[in-house]
Amino acid sequence: MKFALLFGGASFEHEISIVSAIALKDVLKKDHVFIFLDADGNFFHIPSEKMKSDHFSNGEYKKDTKLTLVRGGFEKKGVFKTSRFEEWDIIINLVHGAQGEDGTLSSLLDFYDLPYIGPRKEASVISFNKWLGKLYAKDLGIECVEFVRLNIDGNRTIPFDFPVIVKPLRLGSSIGVSVAKDKKELDFALDVAFEFDDEVLVEPFLENIAEYNVAGCYAKGKWHIGSIEAPSRKEFLDFEQKYLDFSRTHTIETAPINEKLTEMLEEAFKRLYDPLFAGALVRCDFFVKDGKIFINEINPIPGSLANYLFEDFICVLNDLAKSLPKNRKIRPDYAYIERVQSAKGPKTRYSS
Amino acid sequence: MKFALLFGGASFEHEISIVSAIALKDVLKKDHVFIFLDADGNFFHIPSEKMKSDHFSNGEYKKDTKLTLVRGGFEKKGVFKTSRFEEWDIIINLVHGAQGEDGTLSSLLDFYDLPYIGPRKEASVISFNKWLGKLYAKDLGIECVEFVRLNIDGNRTIPFDFPVIVKPLRLGSSIGVSVAKDKKELDFALDVAFEFDDEVLVEPFLENIAEYNVAGCYAKGKWHIGSIEAPSRKEFLDFEQKYLDFSRTHTIETAPINEKLTEMLEEAFKRLYDPLFAGALVRCDFFVKDGKIFINEINPIPGSLANYLFEDFICVLNDLAKSLPKNRKIRPDYAYIERVQSAKGPKTRYSS
């Protein structure tokens, strides 16, 4: 199975997508190609040896082969003829944040009929929009931290005590997120968050709470769930820490938790995953408080695909590649139009 | 304002989209072009005079000019050169059902940066998936009929009395929908619905209930809400009736309801619309029972855009065209990559 790692995108997470792709290059070792989506919506085939971060920051990538999305794949223009860019079997969507995680790329790849590992459009919308994600989880019986949704033009009243955490409603990473300890800090935190989205989510900030990350997928008839990680973090993960987090390639130690909690976390993961997230390798970040599990967020494209949580990551990817959700092919048959036409008499020119 | 009516699509509603476009041709009169999306994902410019239903059912459309989606618009290939297809200002998304209403086309148009009237991807996913739509409406304080979600592989137990109505979870129209009066009819109805989706919604079927349709949009700083319609229907609208429904062009009489109910319906409409459906002309279908309003469904692209509910439909479209939601343009600045690079020392080749 030869993967095409699709990364970049017009998003605030553009850079960490590059970092993520470079990290996966080291993990996958061989049999893969790199397709960069720049901020203007152009695709480029990046040769493996050029997969260094400065290749993108200095714009050198523009000299690489430009690709055009066509039905079933990509085309590359040569000097004399246009040919198919064939050197891959399946795409891995590694575009974090906008475009990659909001449903745009999944729609594009579905429309042009390219096979890919990554969240489908419903899964994307539900995880990218933190409010809709909470409604989804709650209806599945998974607890969420309480919240209030504020609009850029509306009032700034919050119905719970400080400290609170303020998040742009739609970003994938920790950008624009901050903790506020009083009204003044809240105002500042809201100003920051509204830079990124017209809607913002405010939640009570839970201190000294246990956090566990569970990553996995359902593939080839069984669950592949990685080691459960207890992330060690400061107050919360800011962008710079997140940046480092996206480049991780080393296996971690499983969190020292008992069997019952492990089971509860895995059970919650499975309920959130199935069937909406089929085709994706997902990481769910949970809080645990007084023995109760709360979902914090669903990352449908976690940094470097959370490779460091799996014993045999390549095997998981290969299995997932063989278990992608099928789109029902719909062929219109014009039965009704024909019926209306025949009711009006045959061969009329005014059949509508 | 010159509109490009985009219609067709790979969906079970392919035919009614053709009907819808033909109906709008009569309503808009001039200043518009027609772009047909066939079931294989090809775009064609259809000359106005060829806008008859048999042009599509007999495949004649394939001789029309083929268009290619490119950044900011469409290209057409001539014998000697490729040129821009320029004769429009804004697209109207008239692709009913899959692709048009599920978020695929909105993603495509956003990605390629084409201006369009129609639901954005979140609005599409929320209205196309009837389950997610209920979660959305409920959280906004709008009542929904109770329901149970069944999976094609799961059990068929329903927690309420007959009659019930069975609906594929994701179709835009009444296709695959049926009413069941007992267990045997339910089994058959489920078999039918599972032909169209792996997930199905079952609700109590409310008999002799008042139904009202409210269509409108928010544009140029104000609400444009059409006449409230009390649809006259049999048990429920089957596909053939729906077909006729999509070709309507004549203004209807306003439903004879009192001021208070009108206000309640419009209030519910506005709450459901704003801000998620910005950019679209939407029709919400409500039930009223014991003075309480229930949302039945949100149609983000109603048949022939519910033109028959508006006094000056063209004026509404022109206003809407000038009030489209803006996508925030994101330019990656590589600040973090540069910081990491400089920490590692300048000009290293191993900057990742």
Description:
- Chain A has ten helices and 17 strands.
- In chain A, strand 5 (73-77) and strand 6 form a beta hairpin.
- In chain A, strands 6-5-4-3-2-1-7-8 form an eight-stranded mixed beta sheet, sandwiched between helices.
- The longest helix of chain A has 15 residues, at 14-28.
- Chain A is globular, with a radius of gyration of 23 Å.
- With 352 residues, chain A is of the alpha+beta class.
- Chains A and B meet through helix 1, helix 2, helix 3, helix 4 and helix 5 of A and helix 1, helix 2, helix 3, helix 4 and helix 5 of B.
- The sequence of SSEs of chain A as H and E is EHEEHEEEEHEHHEEEEHEEEHHEEHH
Radius of gyration of chain A from CA coordinates: 23 Å
**Kindly state the mean pLDDT of chain A as a whole number?**
90
Globally, the shape of chain A reads globular
Strands side by side in the biggest sheet of chain A: 6-5-4-3-2-1-7-8
Largest interface comes to: A-B, 68 and 68 residues
Structural class, from helix and strand content of chain A? alpha+beta
List how many beta strands of chain A DSSP finds. Answer: 17
How many helix segments of chain A?
10
The portion of residues assigned to helices of chain A is 25-40%
Query: In this structure, how is the largest beta sheet of chain A organized?
Result: 8 strands, mixed
What oligomerization state is this entry in? homodimer
